[in-house]
Amino acid sequence: MVLSCFAAKRKPIGLKWRASSWAVTSVIALGIAVDLLVYSTIIPIMPFHLEKLGFHNVAGLTGWLLFAYSGGLVLSTIPIAMLSERYNARKTPLIIGLVLLTGSQVMLMEAPNYAVMCIARVLQGISSSMVWVVGLALLCDSASPSMVGLQLGIAMCGLSVGLAIGPPVGGILYSRYGYRGPFVFSIAATILDLLGRLLIIERKDAIAWGYDPAALPKPKMEEKEETPSIAASGNLSVSSHVDVNDISATRDQESAVSELPPPTTQVHLSLLSVIIKLFKSSRAVAALFIIFAYGVVYSCQEPAIPVHLQRVWHLTSLSVGLVFIAAVVPTLFSSPLTGYYTDKKGAEWVTILSLFFALPWWVIITIEHKLSLFIVVFGIQSFFTSGVISPLTAELAAVSRESEGVGYAHVYGAFNLVYGIGTTIGPIIGGQLFDHLRRGWLALCLLAAGLLTVCLILAFCFVGSNPILRRLRDRKIQDAHLEP
């Protein structure tokens, strides 16, 4: 019935490039960038805006605004993931999310009081869950399994781009045009994102037109062997109007499609069944805990950094935004780099090395010496800490492919849920520690270092199809058998 419906319509213009995995990856990267831009624009400006409105303990109040965003994300993640996988809906939820995002920004821009600000941030969190759950599922639908790590890494560049643009632009526009300036810019970025989402074509729709973006063509040697057999079969002659090369390419496409997982989950599981399956997978549990810890570590410093920089080095909102550029730019390279090596070496090595090299910088950043030292350390710390996201998202995609009935929307719904919980409690912890402890900055940095240490142990034991601990144990057993 679906095929007959498509037959009655004209083939979409630019089907192959609009449905290609690279087009989808680019649009999802843009969506993540816009989402993080909207999220981070208020970080350098909100403490100063709340001070103008007469509030005190602004680090804590900013933390509650970030909490409201993450709370909306957490509450909406499960229904969005289940509905997206049940009805195989990808593009429509993404568009609905952008409409909601635009409305929430207008509400926050015109908010008459703090309570309305919190409601607007909850709505922004709901729209964010559309991008992370449905967007990453759409990307994995369209990407070949052999390249999913790289393309997830490229998409995750959007996280770094959004964080690189949001705080400095927010600081500049706030200092020059007032409170509404940053929101006008973020609404314009949202409209650009909407155009991209309207442009792409889902894999299920592309397959109905005979094109699978996730299929890889066969090697040329096989093409040369198959082409003569078609002409020799007697069904086609050389003088036929049908091009033999086109038919060979079509067969290659059909063969490649058959080797890939279907575009929809064949077995529909209940929410409880999905949760049980994920909890039975040590790979999934380890990956999700590390993502949760990353959310806590990443967000606990956000409400404290502007006030810390103001107290120690007397920076303004504009200067704070510029500091965020120096810290976030290195992460533009870490996501695709770790995604590429995940495809080559496996998620376990990339995750362990990223965590190991991130740890010392969380201690060094507590030194209150020179601003230049803080900026350099902040950048290196962000580079290695953010490097865990690409291998862990690829790890969850692998879990989905190995678990019958567990779709990409399910695993990325779980990803979004634990990350959202982490970013929900992170700003509260960071804001309260910073406001109420004499050495608050030191306390939250040491908390982050402790969490990353736990994550390093879990990655060593459980991450990857063949974790490092299991390899060492197997090698020890093998060596014991070889001894005389």
Quick summary:
The chain has helices spanning 2-7, 15-19, 21-41, 46-52, 58-86, 91-109, 114-142, 148-177, 181-199, 203-208, 220-232, 244-258, 271-280, 282-300, 305-313, 317-328, 331-345, 347-364, 371-386, 389-402, 408-436, 440-462, 468-482. The protein is mostly helical and 484 residues long.
Keywords:
single chain; 484 residues; mainly alpha; Growth Hormone, Chain: A; 23 helices; globular; disordered N terminus
Write the layout of secondary structure elements.
Blueprint: H1 2-7, H2 15-19, H3 21-41, H4 46-52, H5 58-86, H6 91-109, H7 114-142, H8 148-177, H9 181-199, H10 203-208, H11 220-232, H12 244-258, H13 271-280, H14 282-300, H15 305-313, H16 317-328, H17 331-345, H18 347-364, H19 371-386, H20 389-402, H21 408-436, H22 440-462, H23 468-482
Helix pairs in contact: 3-7, 3-8, 3-9, 4-5, 5-7, 5-21, 6-7, 6-9, 7-21, 8-9, 8-16, 8-17, 8-20, 11-12, 14-20, 14-21, 14-22, 16-19, 17-18, 17-19, 17-20, 18-19, 18-20, 18-22, 20-21, 21-22
Domain count: the total is 1
**CATH H-level name... which superfamily?**
MFS general substrate transporter like domains
Largest sheet: none
Morphology? globular
Query: What is the typical, i.e. mean, pLDDT?
Result: 81
What is the CA-based Rg, rounded? 24 Å
SSE class: mainly alpha
Strand content: under 5%
Low-confidence regions: 1-8, 219-260
Proportion of helical residues: over 70%
* Alpha carbon gap, first and last residue: 68 Å
CATH architecture: Up-down Bundle
Query: In the CATH scheme, what's the topology name?
Result: Growth Hormone, Chain: A
Tell me the number of strands. Answer: 0
Please write the CATH class name. Mainly Alpha
Order of helices and strands: HHHHHHHHHHHHHHHHHHHHHHH
Helix count from the secondary structure assignment = 23
Domain Major facilitator superfamily (MFS) profile: 24-467
Membrane topology: Multi-pass membrane protein
Transmembrane segments: 21-46, 58-80, 92-108, 114-140, 152-175, 181-200, 284-300, 312-334, 346-365, 371-394, 406-429, 441-463
Pfam family, one: MFS_1
